[in-house]
Design brief:
single chain, 3-stranded antiparallel sheet
Length: 272
């Protein structure tokens, strides 16, 4: 009786390596991809297992650019402070910034994509004109208002009068024939929400990115991952700038030297 054990198999459609070659997505990495495919195209291909058309690649990379950096956000500060603490482990600084991607920063892209997709999944047939999209948007915004919930993708702490990324991404989607139902509904929310909420809020760049990525057909559960891919480049830029022109120690000292002790029971007074 044979004592041979079956060889385990681990299927993948991504990458494999042999002694003299690397295969990625069914292509020879060195000869077919390197020098021929941009990093953004490769990322889209890895996520969807579909090579993007030039139109899809342009919109996808525009989204990546729009999400790469937004100044001294908490994620950037976390990366810089972690690098200050552990300059011997740059991976820790990048990881610290990436881990800060949540409901308030970076996670809005996924939240908006899921919100819009959920509305569209229960809408049949889909609106045929702007009036129809506006009617659907009114119901959606009103439902969120009644429930005391925010509308994902509405508002920005800095760009009070309008996020410059939003019209640019919508414009590129239109130019490339990729303007779909998620963007249509998102724009409708932008038009109708003031009459329901009593104030005008900008459609933010994170939200429009979620709508654009959903129209591109990316899986909703991976939208935050796309944001983190983009933001990793920005975080690496912050660490590089921290090396060239450090500010993290000043941030640390500003907090530490201005900390004021307050008794835990809240009955005492602190020196000022």
């Amino acid at each position: 009786m044979s004592t041979d054990q079956p060889v385990p198999s681990f299927p993948t459609s991504l990458g494999t390596s042999e002694g003299t070659s690397i295969t990625l997505l069914g292509q020879d990495l060195a000869t077919d991809l390197m020098g021929h495919v941009s990093f953004g195209e490769l990322a889209y291909w890895l996520i969807t297992l579909r090579r993007p058309t030039p139109q899809q690649a342009r919109l996808f990379e525009a989204v990546l650019l729009g999400l790469a950096d937004h100044g001294f956000t908490p994620t950037a500060i976390a990366a810089r402070l972690t690098y200050l603490s552990a300059p011997d482990a740059i991976q820790g600084a990048l990881a610290a910034g990436i881990l800060g991607g949540g409901a308030r920063f970076l996670g809005v892209t996924e939240d908006t994509g899921r919100f819009l997709a959920g509305l569209l999944a229960t809408t049949d047939p889909r609106p045929a004109d702007e009036a129809g999209w506006d009617a659907l948007a009114r119901r959606a915004v009103a439902d969120r208002a009644v429930a005391g919930q925010f509308v994902p993708g509405l508002g920005h702490p800095v760009h009070k009068e309008g996020d410059p990324r939003t019209p640019r991404i919508i414009g590129i989607a239109r130019e490339e024939g990729l303007y779909g139902p998620h963007l249509a509904l998102f724009e409708a929310i932008g038009r109708v929400h003031p009459e329901i909420l009593g104030k005008r809020l900008p459609l933010n760049g994170a939200g429009v990115s979620g709508a654009a990525l959903a129209d591109l057909g990316l899986p909703l559960e991976l939208l935050r991952g796309v944001v983190l891919l983009a933001r990793c480049a920005g975080l690496l830029g912050h660490v590089a700038e921290e090396i060239r022109r450090p500010v993290a120690n000043s941030i640390y000292l500003a907090v530490d030297r201005n900390a004021v002790y307050i008794p835990p029971n809240g009955t005492g007074t602190a020196d000022t």
